[in-house]
Amino acid sequence: MSRPLILGLMTEGVTDVRFLSSVIERTFEELIITESDVLPEVYSIQVIESVPGSFTEQVLRAATIAYESGITILCVHTDADSKTDKASFDNKINPAFGEVANLTGTACRTLVPIVPVQMTEAWMLADIDLLKEELMTEKSTESLKLSRQPENIANPKEVIKTAVAIAQEDIPKRRKRYELTIADLYLPIGQKIPLERL
Fold first, then answer.
1. Residue 173, phi then psi, degrees to nearest 5
2. What predicted TM-score, i.e. pTM, was given to this entire model?
3. Residues with Cβ within 8 Å of residue 149, at least 6 apart in sequence
4. Residue 124 scores a pLDDT above 90
5. pLDDT given for residue 115 in this prediction
6. 80 neighbors 116 (Cβ within 8 angstroms)
7. Taking 70 as the threshold, does the pLDDT of residue 137 lie above it?
8. How far apart are CA 70 and CA 159, in angstroms?
9. Which of 39, 68, 180, 197 is the most buried (most CB within 10 A)?
């Protein structure tokens, strides 16, 4: 019997956890099925909450907690906030992962970087049809102002908020059960988005 795969996740924010948890679990399950002769069981992701401090300090703390918690692989998220992920790797990921590798104490040393170009919300825009389905709208991509490439959008969070508002503007107030917000979209899109789109 193979050893279970226990995944850990350190993110920049709570909404990132909602979207990324399912994406990461599904990615590892797919990798195991397609690339491995041994099929370990993938346990749900254990989230390690970030605390104040530099990115490197946060990763060092998360790697120590991951080891103490029996986590096999620690996924570390940071948004690129740029058109490429180069600066994030050069200035954050590589230095932090290097510090973990040089630790003399116990720490989870199997780290996987999760670096969306721009921000996590750009990945939510990778499947516009799915987003429109979750918005429960038949409005066109153009009318929702979603026709640009996700990684070319400097602030994808605002683009999604605008699309939410446009999708709901024609619904009479008496028919609205609740006001849909962007926060309501992270989990279902993360669970349903085709991995190859990311």
1. -55, -35
2. 0.86
3. none
4. yes
5. 95
6. yes
7. yes
8. 39
9. 180
Contacts with 38 (C-beta within 8 Å, 6 or more apart), sequence order: 2
- What b/e readout covers 46-73, taking b as 16+ CB neighbours within 10 angstroms? bbbebeeeebbebbbbbbbbbbeeebbb
Burial class (CB in 10 A: 0-12, 13-18, 19+), 139: middle
Q: Return phi, psi of residue 37, to 5°.
A: -80, -30
CA–CA dist 28, 49 (Å, integer) = 21
Sheet holding 42-47, edge to edge: 42-47, 5-10, 73-77, 111-114
CB 76 within 8 A of CB 57: no
User: Cα(57)–Cα(61) distance, rounded to whole angstroms?
Assistant: 6
CA distance 111 to 9: 10
